[in-house]
Amino acid sequence: MTPRELKKAMKQQRRELKARVRAQLDANPLIRAQRRRRLIRRVATAVGLLLLLLFVRCDCGEGPAPVPSPPDAGVPRR
């Protein structure tokens, strides 16, 4: 075998090994549950950040009106 053929064969074996390991991990119920929890946590975090962003950008109004000052009669005090 030439060095190129050896390199190609090793690459193919490496791909097959990775596929087998991935299939074994996907079949493991503990790994699947952990991935599911991670996905749910990521989605919940994204939703929370989106809600927080929406509340920050919310125009909820001007707030309470300022208290008017009492009218001045124009008479100077002594």
Low-confidence stretches: none
Shape: rod-shaped
Structural class assignment: mainly alpha
**How much is the average pLDDT?**
87
In which range does the helix fraction lie?
55-70%
Radius of gyration over C-alpha positions, nearest whole angstrom: 34 Å
State the end-to-end distance: 114 Å
Order of helices and strands: HH
Q: Based on the structure, what is the oligomeric state of the protein chains? A: single chain
Strand element count: 0
The share of residues in extended strands comes to: under 5%
Number of helices: 2
Q: The biggest beta sheet, please? A: none
Word description of this protein:
- With 78 residues, the chain is mostly helical.
- It has a domain at 29-53.
- It is built from two helices and no strands.
- The chain has helices at residues 3-27, 29-56.
Summarize the structure.
This protein has helices at residues 3-27, 29-56. The protein is mainly α and 78 residues long. It has a domain at 29-53.
Please render the helix and strand layout as text:
Layout: H1 3-27, H2 29-56
Keywords:
mainly alpha, 78 residues, 2 helices, rod-shaped
